[in-house]
Amino acid sequence: MDNDGKFHLESTILVKNLSTDDWEQLVFYFIPNMFTKAVSPELEQPSTVAFHNITIDGKTATYTTEKDTLNIQLQEKLTLKQEMKVHFSYEFTLPDEGFRFTKSNNNYIL
Question: What is the CA radius of gyration of the chain?
Fold first, then answer.
């Protein structure tokens, strides 16, 4: 987190398909998006979210966000026991007076 309260994140995860279904997309629970102006217009000071990039095995991935969900479209189906590395680079701020995800008097609650 910088001095202005902006969090800068980079993360790499290994995703392995252990199901018998082929996957056409990856779906992640992504709470920061719930408190942006687009999703929660009633907040006086909403959060901000900015993705720098999302890559799969080093290649730029196509993604969308909808409410608390981050959807990443796969270029090729992920079949049983296949795995891939997903890298995320993004930043976000916390909203004032959000629910479960807020800042209050410069104290950050996640």
Answer: 16
User: Quick one: three-class SS letters along 47-66?
Assistant: ECEEEEEEEECCEECEEEEE
**pLDDT tens for residues 57-83?**
999 999 999 999 999 999 999 999 999
Residue among 93, 107, 98 at smallest CA distance from 2: 93
- Whether the Cβ atoms of residue 92 and residue 83 lie closer than 8 Å to each other: no
Q: Is 56:84 a contact under the CB 8 Å cutoff?
A: yes
Euclidean distance between CA atoms 23 and 29, whole angstroms: 17
The H or E element that residue 16 is part of is strand 7-16
How far apart, in Å, do the first and last CA atoms of the chain sit?
A: 13
The partner residues of 91 in beta bridges, in order of sequence, read: 8, 50
The pTM is what?
0.81
Among 80, 61, 57, 79, which Cα is nearest to 71's? 61
